[in-house]
Amino acid sequence: MRPVYLDNNATTRVDPVVVDAMLPFFTEQFGNPSSIHSFGASVGVSVKKARQQLQQLLGAEHDHEIIYTASGTEADNTAILSALEAMPGRDEIVTSAVEHPAVLALCQHLEKTGRAKVHYIGVDSLGRLDIEAYRNALSDKVALVTLMWANNETGTLFPVEGLAELAKEHGALFHTDAVQAVGKVPIVLKGSAIDMLSLSGHKLHAPKGIGALYVKRGTRFKPLLRGGHQERGRRAGTENAPGIIGLGKAAELAIEHMVDEQTRVKELRDRLEKAILQRIPNCFVNGDPRERLPNTSNIAFEYVEGEAILLHLTRQGIAASSGSACTSGSLEPSHVMKAMNVPFTAAHGSIRFSLSRDNVPEDVDQVIEALPKILEKLRELSPFWDGANKDPKDFKPVYA
Amino acid sequence: MWDYSDKVKDYFFNPKNAGVLGEANAVGEVGAISCGDALKLMLKVDPETETIQDAKFQTFGCGSAIASSSALTELIIGKTLEEAVSITNQDIADFLGGLPPEKMHCSVMGYEALQAAIANFRGEEWHDDHEEGALVCKCFGVDEGVIERAIRMNKLTSIEQVTDYTKAGGGCLTCFDKLEELLAKVNGELVAEGLLAEHAAYRIGGSDAAELKAKAKAKKEAEKAPVREVAAQATSPIAPSSPLPPPSAGMTNLKKIRLIEEAIEELRPYLKKDGGDCELVDVDGNNVMVNLKGACMGCQMASVTISGIQERLIAKLGMPIRIIPVKNTH
């Protein structure tokens, strides 16, 4: 059985070209890029080249607007904490209810410790930001707006460029967690009102352990990590040179593959989605059908639980993921499904298929072949299921 | 993904007794779709002998929920209602070779469905056992009766364990105060009955709700590998089932060994009664190596025996002790 990997929003395979680019920096080019001798200087040159490759992918005006970090989470945390510190007199943050925990957990912590008042803007049933509520939350007390570019679970895109313009009207800084968007949708930061942007290497075929924060030139900034003078004093710590070079190469490849991502990968995703909706009753797509990442399809299967579906898929060599309770270790459906008010009948059975340029039509065929039988089998086991459109209220448990 | 035993996987992928039992004369329905778990247990009971002739189930839930339901039907077919009524959630978990701690609520759901079905056969209302309006966890619809039973049957001593076994407290945690109260109350009863060491019992103020929430969140976000590691540790028979008390200072090794021998001697009649035995092999610091003999060897309940011995030793010595089952070396 051929393994099928459709969990690329969790992580991607490191591109072999990226691996090749990195390898010399573990061996012969081992110098510290901050050293001035020849061992370090040549690595420093490669680090600079990687910065320019990333600058290209982001459409940034200057390469020095890129600060390397160890992860997307570090980039998010740096942006938020920096903004609070750099904007005296302002102690409010505006974010959304569907952000990644890298943003949400920190915001909740800041709120709990009394360091900031946080506005969590809700979304509609398609995962689209409530723009009216967003406008109402903006004021001259807001230090930072932090909104994701693309949702990791549903792929729904927020119109961040426009949202950033609105934030600017109130003098707030604007940060976007673009971890899922970078490499999948075109991004041009030059000329935009976006002040900061986070990304993570392993979501775009670079290795894990390398991320970056874009900080527009002129933006007030306070470092999270202090120590050495690396990254122009904005992020101390010896540079992860192999990771940085890998990320640079991955950025170069992402530019090359952008069209493929927007066309072939999207077509594969759409074919998968269409076939599932046609062949399996009582399921629907979570997220915005139009403004969505080209690689992501989150489908809610009513009356079955996500982990049970995943276990069957795994046995058939297919890797996907679920935002459902049991898989993640939590007991509740994902905060994204809850924010979208996805009914419980479906929220527990939501499966995310996320593709990449590595996927081929046979992968989709394999899922289309396997999934209807899995759903049929699990629904036969479900007390809520008695054929399509059964009213689950027929089931009357003792303590519901 | 969770680290399930082969038996859990087998009972999930090839569930026995799944489906609708047309001739059912006893039905137990528990759980709710909002909680992500629901089970309908159907029994065919011989009215004369009260023997369960057949059992089938329908389950909405994860791998361990389906496996637990299937295991339950295997456990009860052929038993009389009197025999079946004493089956515990731990029996279901043991039958499956253990469940990850966070999944123990699946076995509790099986237990609840069985009790509900038996009550249904007898024309009783299962929820009559519960106090009116005693819904504790609104997120998951768990009432006082379920929580108290789970604490008692499994000798739970922490809020986190209560959540693992019942789901209560797994959501907004506004029920924290009530959970604490129930845990302290039932633990107090268990201490009074000699079933739980006093120092192991939960006391009000023993946990902080904010810390629990933070821990739950961290756990949720943890990568899969560490989750597996935690699960493996927690299901290991040598893992302590409850937080260990602070070590007692000043006990000599000789005194420690004597007390351990005394404790084992006190337990021996009970073990022998079940055709087994336990022999002290070695003591290394707080690790006590024992050799389980006779029927205790390879018994599905061995881990329960081990934790029972461990609990007894902790109570006797007043210090943390870890029981490690080893093979006989002489």
Automatic annotation (TrEMBL), chain A:
Its biological purpose: Catalyzes the removal of elemental sulfur atoms from cysteine to produce alanine. Seems to participate in the biosynthesis of the nitrogenase metalloclusters by providing the inorganic sulfur required for the Fe-S core formation.
UniProt catalytic activity: (sulfur carrier)-H + L-cysteine = (sulfur carrier)-SH + L-alanine
EC number: 2.8.1.7
Name this protein carries in UniProt: Cysteine desulfurase
Origin: domain of life: Bacteria
Cofactor(s) it depends on: pyridoxal 5'-phosphate
Stated family: Belongs to the class-V pyridoxal-phosphate-dependent aminotransferase family. NifS/IscS subfamily.
UniProt KW Metal-binding keyword: yes
Pfam families, alphabetized: Aminotran_5
PROSITE patterns assigned: AA_TRANSFER_CLASS_5
Keyword field: Iron, Iron-sulfur, Metal-binding, Pyridoxal phosphate, Transferase
Quaternary structure, from the entry: Homodimer.
The keyword Oxidoreductase appears for this protein: no
Enzyme class: transferase
Span of domain Aminotransferase class V: 4-367
Automatic annotation (TrEMBL), chain B:
Protein known as: Nitrogen fixation protein NifU
Residue stretches making up the NIF system FeS cluster assembly NifU C-terminal domain: 260-322
Region spans: Disordered: 229-248
Source taxonomy: Bacteria, Pseudomonadati, Pseudomonadota, Alphaproteobacteria, Hyphomicrobiales
Domain NIF system FeS cluster assembly NifU N-terminal stretches: 4-124
Gene3D superfamilies: 3.90.1010.10, BFD-like [2Fe-2S]-binding domain, Fe-S cluster assembly (FSCA)
InterPro entries on file: BFD-like_2Fe2S-bd_dom, BFD-like_2Fe2S-bd_dom_sf, FSCA_dom_sf, N_fixation_NifU, NIF_FeS_clus_asmbl_NifU, NIF_FeS_clus_asmbl_NifU_C, NIF_FeS_clus_asmbl_NifU_N
Cofactor(s) the protein needs: [2Fe-2S] cluster
One Pfam family per UniProt: Fer2_BFD
Function in brief: May be involved in the formation or repair of [Fe-S] clusters present in iron-sulfur proteins.
Keywords: 2Fe-2S, Iron, Iron-sulfur, Metal-binding, Nitrogen fixation
Domain BFD-like [2Fe-2S]-binding: 135-184
SUPFAM superfamilies per record: Fe-S cluster assembly (FSCA) domain-like (SSF117916), SufE/NifU (SSF82649)
Entry annotated with the keyword Manganese: no
